[in-house]
Structures are given as structure tokens and as C-alpha cells.
């Protein structure tokens, strides 16, 4: 058990942080929702009612979809684009998908390579892009969840104001949906750009996301 925890400490740490912050969001969200309800002459709800509501679901899903979009685009864009001096980038001249020998696929697979890396045809192709495919699907699913939960929450507000509800198509083309969506996207893109650029000139000793402390600023694709 100790070895299992140690070998998976990074994933477990972030999963625990995720659960802790999700729980905190649910408590804070319940309080904020009830304040708004009381201010508008409505009745308070319990924690259980709030976490099963469309209001909570849309707040969670809109953050998930922006995070998965960030990783999906970053995984794909870093195949082709470089940033000189960044440990987050490949070196100049290494842009692209690289050769089968460099990627250890097909006849170049090593003894310990995954079975699909050594396979031919569609299995090799799918496995070669499986991380991007997974992130893309997670983005689409969370985006769909946001749109459905957001539609329910939006229509609840419409009905409370004695206005007509809208269709799913009407909602996903509405200012409310794109305001929620774009405010998350812009923050994710800024965070990625900041990490790429700051890692050129700043260091975090021992972190694989940073260059070695003594590496030149111009050193690319180096980690400490």
C-alpha cells in the first residue's frame, strides 16, 4: 500500500485537492445561492438540494470544460509550435510528429512498449493520438454537460421572471452561455502563456516543469 501511494502520490495529491475544493465550492455555493434566493423573496435550499441542482452543475461543468480544452489544445499545439528557452517546448527542428524510430512505434517498439504501439494499422494510429483524443472527448462531454445544466438553470430564471424558456440551440447561441464560456477560456489561455514564458527566465529547483537552476535562459526542452 505504501508503495502504491508513493508511486501515485502526484495523482492522489491532486485528486484530494480536487475533492476538497469541490466540497468547499458546494458549501460556499449553497450559501451564495440562498442569499440570492432570500434577496429575491424565494426560499432557502439544503446543501443536498443545491449540489443536485442545475445551478451547481453548470458552475462545475463550465470549469471542467475549460480545463480540458486547455490541455487538449496544448497537447496538439506543442506538436507543431515551439518556444525558444521554454522547458514546455520541443527544440527547434523537432516540430511535427517525429519518425517511427524516434517515437518507438511499429517495428521500432521496445520490449516494454505498449502492445498497441507495436501494432500496425488503426491501433497504432489511435494509440499514437490517444491522449489528445481523450482530452478532446472529455472537453466535448463537459462542454455538453455545461450546456445542458446551463440551459436548465437559465430556464429556471426565465420562468421565475415569467418569461418564456428557450431551447438548447437558443441557449448555446445566447450571450449568457458564451459569457460563461469565454470568461473561463481566456483565463486558461493566459495561464498557459504565462507558464510558457515565465519558465524561460524563472526556475523552480527540482521541478520537471522548470529548467535546471543553472541552465541558460536560451536552453529549450530542459527540465530540472
TrEMBL record:
Segments of skewed composition (Basic and acidic residues): 91-105
Signal peptide segment: 1-28
Transmembrane intervals: 64-82, 131-154, 185-202
Keyword field contains Membrane: yes
Region listing for Disordered, in residue ranges: 91-112
Entry keyword set: Membrane, Signal, Transmembrane, Transmembrane helix
KW Signal (keyword) present: yes
Protein name from the UniProt record: Uncharacterized protein
Amino acid at each position: 500500500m505504501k508503495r502504491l501511494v508513493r508511486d501515485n502520490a502526484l495523482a492522489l495529491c491532486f485528486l484530494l485537492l480536487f475533492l476538497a475544493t469541490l466540497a468547499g465550492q458546494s458549501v460556499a455555493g449553497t450559501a451564495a445561492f440562498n442569499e440570492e434566493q432570500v434577496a429575491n423573496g424565494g426560499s432557502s435550499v439544503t446543501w443536498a438540494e443545491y449540489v443536485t441542482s442545475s445551478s451547481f452543475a453548470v458552475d462545475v461543468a463550465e470549469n471542467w470544460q475549460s480545463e480540458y480544452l486547455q490541455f487538449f489544445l496544448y497537447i496538439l499545439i506543442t506538436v507543431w509550435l515551439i518556444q525558444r528557452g521554454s522547458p514546455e517546448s520541443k527544440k527547434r527542428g523537432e516540430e511535427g510528429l517525429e519518425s517511427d524510430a524516434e517515437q518507438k512505434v511499429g517495428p521500432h517498439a521496445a520490449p516494454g512498449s505498449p502492445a498497441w504501439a507495436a501494432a500496425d494499422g488503426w491501433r497504432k494510429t489511435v494509440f499514437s493520438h490517444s491522449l489528445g483524443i481523450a482530452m478532446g472527448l472529455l472537453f466535448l462531454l463537459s462542454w455538453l454537460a455545461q450546456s445542458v445544466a446551463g440551459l436548465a438553470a437559465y430556464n429556471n430564471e426565465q420562468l421565475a421572471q415569467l418569461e418564456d424558456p428557450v431551447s438548447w440551440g437558443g441557449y448555446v447561441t445566447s450571450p449568457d452561455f458564451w459569457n460563461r464560456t469565454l470568461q473561463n477560456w481566456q483565463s486558461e489561455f493566459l495561464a498557459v502563456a504565462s507558464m510558457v514564458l515565465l519558465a524561460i527566465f524563472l526556475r523552480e529547483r527540482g521541478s520537471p516543469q522548470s529548467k535546471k537552476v543553472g541552465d541558460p535562459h536560451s536552453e529549450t526542452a530542459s527540465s530540472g
